Amino acid sequence: MKASATITETVLDINANSAQDGGLNGVPMEAEGTLGTMKPLTPPRRIKVLGVPLDLGAGHRGVDMGPSAIRVAGLLEGLRGLGYTVEDLGNIFVPPPQSRDPGDPKARFLKEIRQACSEIAGTLDAHLDDDVRPVILGGDHSLAMGSVAGTSAWWKRKGHDIGLIWVDAHADMNTPDSSPTGNIHGMPLAHLLGMGREELTNIGGVGAKVVAENVVLIGIRSVDVEEREIVRQSGVTVFTMRDIDEIGIRRVMERAIQIVTHRTAGFHLSYDVDGVDALEAPGVGTPVRGGLTYREAHLIAEMAHDSGRLLAMDVTEVNPVEDTRNQTGRLAAELVFSAFGRRIL
Ligand SMILES: [Mn+2]
Known about the structure:
CATH superfamily: Ureohydrolase domain
Number of helices: 12
Shape: globular
Distance between the termini: 41 Å
Largest sheet: 8 strands, parallel
Strand order of the largest sheet: 4-3-5-10-9-6-7-8
Oligomer: single chain
CATH topology: Arginase, Chain A
Number of strands: 10
Strand content: 15-25%
Bound molecules: manganese (II) ion
């Protein structure tokens, strides 16, 4: 990928590749971008829910209450209604920020976040099985350094890589050196790709958890100045809000699923609810105008389900302090239902 390409050009490059070889990013269309020699995935029968009351990575307080809000919205009952056996693993322990010293201003609460993410990774790795899909409730998005590490470690032992779909208003690809705030929830994706601080890239296993060729960002509309260059150089595929406006969310998701399932067992869906427009998701820490509509947000989850390749899901950044009568908590629960097969008819 050209390092000099803008994000929109990157998408256009993909189009150009498709025209040349019938695929994108060199992925042949006919190969289904999927399994190679892998036998079919066992369909999910059990869902394990893990709460992460983490707001150490965020600038605004309150996302630590997100897991409760999503549970109160009827998450477990709704998933059981879809026919799954659902187990709630409870919450991992996270200290409140007021009780700790943030330490390094370039990576605030690094030690505590590392500890929480290691516990997430270990818990998921221990609870995964062929027919189990974890759902992780946030909490700020830095939790994904633990959840994706856990999913990746388990599948790696079975001999498979995983892909990653990252839905977000932000790219979350800062490193401590580039971040204007030092808030780690703006850095998880960089660390999952192996960039940044070793203490964070080595959570749940050494080094990168996903390769850029299998990573797709969707819904992006706010990228910091230095972060922009990191995104461009990284090799991940980005569908900004403009791309969604221009080609539609259905085409975006078709391509995304091809990319994240190419020679992988499947993909982890890390859904930051601030990707959704603030009109539908007012209860987030960092709202940005011009986001996904309610239906675009759902179609992402519905198509993730229909791909048959969804391995795990995070829903993050629900902030009850900013919310209106748990509207955003309910949206988060509904997005999980769509990702696990709820349909209109
Ligand atoms: Mn995020």
